[in-house]
Amino acid sequence: CRERGGGEGEGLSAERRRTPMPPTAAPHRHLLDVAGLSWSDLKLLLGTTEAARRILGSPTGRVDALKGVNVTTLFYEASTRTRISFENAAKALGTNVNSVAVASSSVGKGESLVDTVKTLRALGSNVIVLRHERAGAPWLAARVFDGSVLNAGDGWHAHPTQALLDLSVLLRNIGAKDGTLKGRRVAIIGDLLHSRVVRSNLHTLRAAGAEVRLAGPAELTRGFAEAAERSGGVTLCASLAEALEGADAVMALRIQRERLDGGEVSSFEAYREAWGLTEERIAAHAARGCVVLHPGPMNEGVEIDPDVADGPRSLILEQVAEGIPVRMAALWRTLRGDAPLNAPAPAKANS
Ligand code: CP
Questions:
Q1: Which protein residue's CA is at the shortest distance from atom 1 of ligand 1?
Q2: Ligand 1, atom 6: nearest CA belongs to which residue?
Q3: pLDDT of 152-192, one tens digit each?
Q4: Three-class SS string for 133-193?
Q5: How far does the centroid of ligand 1 lie from the alpha carbon of residue 320, in Å?
Q6: Are 331 and 85 in contact (CB under 8 A)?
Q7: Measured between alpha carbons, how far is 265 from 291 in angstroms, rounded to an integer?
Q8: How many whole angstroms from its chain centre is CA 99?
Q9: Residues with CB under 6 A from ligand 1
Q10: Which secondary structure element, helix H or strand E, spans residue 293, and what is its range?
Q11: What are 189's strand-pairing partners?
Q12: Residues 218, 260, 130, CA angle at the centre, nearest 5°?
């Protein structure tokens, strides 16, 4: 049950410190995963992303649409793109934003996730954007939090807003006329095993109608042959060349050095030799206008060559920038449901 209203000047009672929740009509109060989202949910989010882009392009670059909402970013793992773009997105919608520096917070004294979430609620947070090394952590947070939880990446499991921004960038660059990815082939290469990005992308890309080809070293693709068989439209390929054949887009995944437990990769030189994205390999196998994505951060010279990452096919910085409007849309949808996000009217030209 959500608290509503609450005026100024109530004093610093416990109730006042528990900042009232803003009214909401959201059918999806949290954004924990994309797997529960239908194509029409995804289209709604993409439409809101367009409205968010208009706000960002307006003279002020912001609105007060979520004024009074307190957003807290709580990241137990390192991040540049996701955390900063969530914070910029929240500010562009007029919210107050706080960031917990986990390393210097009471987490370091052993405070549990549940107690941290309850503490943040008591301090007035309405929205928690959570990244955690444990799969499922955002679901646990959502059980004890009466506001909204947005998953900013949990373990190897899910990274919903990354998949949404990848989808948005792909639709803009290689989308079919009907606003889908039907007839488009997307290759995803590399460390699938540790990748929350690929697990979320599989859902959104299939929902958009893309054919997906996966490839990577056998030690880093365990379980994906079965997943491919189950989902239809997804193939686990034996080689990079096979996965690239006719691809309209290719996404290289980061070798997650921090999650390797030894033995999966004999050497980074050997990895590049077999699985590295080079211009020669893309030109030899992929469709002519094939575009290149990477969720970042990159190990340049390992999973992707610098001249590909910085070359004309690369959409990597477009992905980074897309994080802001997409995360504005995610915040808006969790807090306001189907309500339209209105951009300010364009300034009238002087006559
Ligand atoms: N893609 C991604 O999640 O990047 P960060 O770790 O920098 O947030």
A1: 295
A2: 79
A3: 999 999 999 999 999 999 999 999 999 999 999 999 999 99
A4: CCCCHHHHHHHCCCCEEEEEEECCCECHHHHHHHHHHHHHHHCCCCCCCCCCEEEEECCCC
A5: 9
A6: no
A7: 27
A8: 18
A9: 79-82, 153, 162, 295-297
A10: strand 291-293
A11: 215, 252
A12: 115
